[in-house]
Design a protein that fits this description.
Blueprint lengths: L1 H28 L16 E10 L4 E14 L2 E6 L2 E4 H4 L19 E9 L5 E18 L2 E16 L4 E11 L4 E9 L2 E11 L6
Antiparallel strand pairs: 1-2, 1-10, 2-3, 3-4, 5-6, 6-7, 7-8, 8-9, 9-10
Amino acid sequence: MNYLNNKHINSTIVFIITVLIVTSCFKQHKKLAYQPAESDYTIGEKWVWKYKGVSDKGEVRSDGKDVKQIVAIDGVLTMLIGNDSVPVSNLIAPDKSETPRYKWPLEVGKKWIYERTWTSQDSTIGKQSQNAEVLSYKEEKVGAGIFMAYTIVYKGTISNSRGYSARTEEVWLYAPKVKNFIKLTQTQDDFVYNEELIEYTNPNTKQ
């Protein structure tokens, strides 16, 4: 009798573990994240990131906070970014680039090439070229809380017209709930940069 009871208990445990594994795998792969729409943003919504950049010699090259907030300016839904303001309609305009930062919709296993070119104030032209891949979709904990997020890895190079060139790797955690990344780790030769969401408020979300 004890043998039968033990056998039943063991079978039940195996079944439960199997269900948990399958559920976990399903949870990681079932989600598709589409680009946010203007209606997803709310007046009073606010994001605060803490960032820090340190060289391999311990030299702190950047250390501070980034703040973004949604307001209404002359009836137009607008995001305040430091001293700048950008209409939300501009932020969510479809990116027609063949090499975007985010290749919508996001899903585990998706791959693409990310490239961008820019010109600095001293007319130096920079270029970034990376292979991107979505590795997972799972719970991630940051200073602002716990969120379901995609882990996206970017690997490639960064260079400029002055002869600088370096290998770079970035890990972005993008959380659909906050419509933004919640954590960023960037390694560029002798420099490591980290940014993490430490505060997120949304008037429509119950505390």
